[in-house]
Design a protein that fits this description.
- The chain is α+β, with helices and mostly antiparallel strands.
- It has one domain.
- Helices cover 26% and strands 37% of the residues.
- The chain contains four helices and eight strands, in the order αβαβαββββββα.
- Strands 1, 2, 3, 4, 5, 6, 7 and 8 form an eight-stranded mixed beta sheet that branches.
- It is globular, with a radius of gyration of 14 Å.
- It starts with a helix and ends with a helix.
- The relative contact order is 0.29.
- The mean pLDDT is 91.
């Protein structure tokens, strides 16, 4: 994972996050999005994706935004109890709310702690991570 983080070296925008413990995060996501798969993460990077306009338009036509999260620390995953040394790259965003719920088509991610915001080409995000 160190080499992945090294690829993200350099200046980034700071994104303030929420301070919650894992149990509170799980309770909040279950209340707000009952029945949805969910994942609690920290040490995250918000990736604003660049791509040719027709690719970006295709993403938007599917009801998604050209944004992904790369999280280096999975604290809880409702679908996988063996999360030791886990990281995740999400699918494109459908919704972002309450400064912590990053929603994709299939999963709700709870972003714990502060993060970074970076621009990255979609092709790079898909190839490298």
């Amino acid at each position: 994972m160190g080499e992945v983080k090294a690829r993200l070296a350099g200046p980034a925008l700071h994104m303030p996050g929420v301070q919650l413990d894992v149990e509170d995060a799980i309770a909040q996501v279950k209340e707000r999005y009952p029945g949805r798969s969910h994942c609690v993460v920290s040490d995250w990077v918000w990736l604003d994706l660049g791509a040719p306009e027709e690719v970006l338009q295709g993403i938007r036509e599917q009801g998604k935004q050209p944004v992904m999260i790369l999280a280096f620390n999975v604290l809880y995953d409702s679908l996988d109890q063996d999360i030791s040394e886990s990281w995740v790259r999400t699918q494109p965003m459908v919704e972002f709310s309450d400064s912590k719920f990053f929603v994709t088509a299939h999963t709700v991610y709870v972003l714990i702690g502060d993060g970074q915001r970076r621009q990255m080409q979609l092709s790079t995000a898909l190839r490298v991570f």
